[in-house]
Amino acid sequence: MTPDAYRVIISKRDTRHYLDKPIPDETVQRILQAGRMAGSSKNSQPVRYIVVRGAQGKAELAGCGQYAHHLPSAPLVVALVLVPGGGAFDAGRAAQNMMLAAWAEGVTSCPVAMHDQDRARAVLGIPPDHSVAMVLAFGYPDRRYPLHGGRQRLPLHELVHWERW
Amino acid sequence: MTPDAYRVIISKRDTRHYLDKPIPDETVQRILQAGRMAGSSKNSQPVRYIVVRGAQGKAELAGCGQYAHHLPSAPLVVALVLVPGGGAFDAGRAAQNMMLAAWAEGVTSCPVAMHDQDRARAVLGIPPDHSVAMVLAFGYPDRRYPLHGGRQRLPLHELVHWERW
């Protein structure tokens, strides 16, 4: 294993502008596989995946979140569904695995919250005791928009404490 | 960027048996940097990091979780603290980044929940309106214990739905 993984990890940015270019099925498979292999609390594997590529499904999901307008322009959308008892921390782990696997192949992404859970449940047809932890939009980056624009990070010394707060 | 990142992602397992071997400072820095660079909701950057390597701090943290007995044997422990309003999904993203950056250098890890939040807050000295999203244990794997033992995953076709549930 090489430091390439580290470069993928630290260069990944959440972006919302995608080319109108489909993502190959093999890449989709690797993205899903990356989610599947994410660790979870007591190996409970609480995350399920709904792949949405149809225009109608994407448009309907765009109506379920306050910042979901860009979903229809993403060639690949994957909803992360939590089974009862599943936690958002594990969904975050799976999502990061998927977004890094995508970025390793040049596919950028952005998580999108579904503020209207009831509507999202209806759109996706999921059971009432399940929840939509997040929806991920994937696509090749539209380079007319900066990948790193406005995505500044606080310096490490402001984020890290040693031994105690 | 190469497929190496994908191999790191899908081979990572959460394991709790570590060698008594320190982790180099440069590796610690990359692990923290990986956390720092994780995306977050509206770039809110809600995660703070407390690096714990002292024996006393690790022993005290081990008393704050139901499955935290192995913390003292980990050469590196990092507590992920959420500022007010921060969400577990973002903590999961940061944690996965850190654990993958570590694994890319051969360092395994395991997230540990702090069930007694009040006690963990006191041990770490964090403000009362902050929470400990998770504690991560890091170490070189003790190969006397299997890396993949019991960490089976459900098959992909049971986890994935297409267009709708």
Task: Provide tags for this entry.
NADH Oxidase, 4-stranded antiparallel β-sheet, 6 helices, alpha+beta, homodimer
Strand content of chain A: 15-25%
Strand order of the biggest β-sheet of chain A:
1-2-4-3
Give the class-level CATH name of chain A: Alpha Beta
The low-confidence runs of chain A, each spanning 5 or more residues with pLDDT under 50, are none
Largest interface: A-B, 76 and 77 residues
Structural class of chain A: alpha+beta
User: Any idea what the radius of gyration of chain A is?
Assistant: 16 Å
Task: Kindly describe this structure.
The structure is a homodimer of 165-residue chains. Chain A has a single domain, classed as NADH Oxidase (3-Layer(aba) Sandwich). In chain A, helix 2 packs antiparallel against helix 4. Helix content of chain A is 34%, strand content 18%. Chain A has a four-stranded antiparallel beta sheet with strand order 1-2-4-3, sandwiched between helices. Chain A contains six helices and five strands; from the N terminus they run H-H-E-H-E-H-E-H-E-H-E. The mean pLDDT of chain A is 95. With 165 residues, the first copy, chain A, is of the alpha+beta class. The longest helix of chain A has 16 residues. The interface between A and B is large, with 76 and 77 residues.
